[in-house]
Write a structure and sequence with these properties.
There is one protein chain. The radius of gyration is 21 Å and the shape is elongated. The chain has 2 domains: 164 residues, P-loop containing nucleotide triphosphate hydrolases (Rossmann fold, 3-Layer(aba) Sandwich), CATH 3.40.50; 83 residues, Conserved Hypothetical Protein Ylqf, Chain: A, domain 2, CATH 1.10.1580.10. By secondary structure, the chain is α/β, with parallel strands linked by helices. Helix 8 packs across helix 11. The protein is built from 11 helices and 6 strands.
Length: 284
């Protein structure tokens, strides 16, 4: 599966982000808690440099809590703090301000010593498409200023959003990177909807997801689709799920497009329970 996913406006976005970095005190990077490694843009480290950063592991209701906690420990250091959040419900959002204060303590102390009070921190929000940037900004601003959507690439231009927390957010378009080197990264991004389904072979994608879930969460699959057993062949499992869900066309043949949509939609919607496809121990 070779995906070309670097639209022309992405190169422009990257240049603008580097230019705008001098306007902010810190960066909030948002990743998908289910695929924390794959949803990291490898170019963000270069773009952000030494700017203090908070990494939000968003959609944490869809990931395994124990694995997410391991990622928080793995990612956090003196200049970077990781935090699990749910931008839809607001879970974890209140912890952002204290973390930001910790990262910017030296700046705040300098300004306080000069008699400057009521400090507003300016923060750039970055992340790949469909990780929940706009939902996060709306929750922070407590209204729907930023556009949201369930398709990647909704935000297209920089915008500033004020909050009542002493934080001003710079929203940026979801930034991709030129080439996806790893097949696993490609698949994980596609599983979670960061890559548009329209450019994918949805049946191949669902089959790959099913193979992954059979290895990691066999009991979840069996319980969800009422399967008595799982085959080593993911195609056999897909056929059995199709029969259980009535994804059959005339002549008793499997409707592979329909069952593929069912599997992907139920995974993305959390119907299979909390799932983490990546563990930091896998990459040590």
């Amino acid at each position: 599966m070779d995906i070309n996913w670097f639209p022309g406006h992405m190169a422009k976005t990257k240049r603008e982000m580097k230019q705008n970095l001098k306007l902010v005190d810190a960066v909030i990077e948002i990743r998908d808690a289910r695929i924390i490694r794959s949803s990291k843009n490898p170019e963000v480290d270069d773009i952000c440099g030494s700017k203090p950063r908070i990494i939000l592991l968003n959609k944490n209701d869809l990931s395994e809590d124990s694995v997410t906690k391991k990622w928080i420990k793995y990612l956090s250091n003196k200049n970077i703090k990781a935090l699990a959040v749910n931008s839809n419900t607001g879970q974890g959002i209140k912890s952002i301000k204290p973390l930001l204060d910790e990262l910017l303590k030296e700046k705040h102390d300098r300004m306080n010593n000069k008699g400057i009070l009521g400090i507003t921190d300016r923060v750039m929000v970055v992340g790949i498409p469909n990780v929940g940037k706009s939902s996060f900004i709306n929750k922070m601003a407590k209204n729907s200023i930023a556009k949201t959507g369930d398709k990647p690439g909704v935000t297209r231009s920089k915008q500033w959003i004020k909050t009542k927390l002493g934080i001003e957010l710079m929203d940026t378009p979801g930034i991709l990177w030129p080439k996806l080197e790893s097949q696993e990264t490609q698949l994980h991004l596609a599983f979670t909807g960061a890559i548009k389904d329209e450019i994918m072979d949805i049946e191949e994608l669902a089959l790959s997801l099913l193979k992954d879930l059979c290895e990691r969460y066999p009991k979840r699959l069996m319980d969800r689709y009422k399967l008595s057993e799982l085959s080593e062949d993911p195609l056999v499992n897909m056929d059995n799920i199709a029969r259980k869900r009535g994804a059959i066309v005339s002549g008793g043949k499997i409707d592979y497009n329909r069952v593929s949509v069912i599997i992907l939609d139920e995974f993305r919607g959390g119907k299979l329970g909390p799932i983490s496809l990546e563990d930091p121990l896998d990459f040590n």
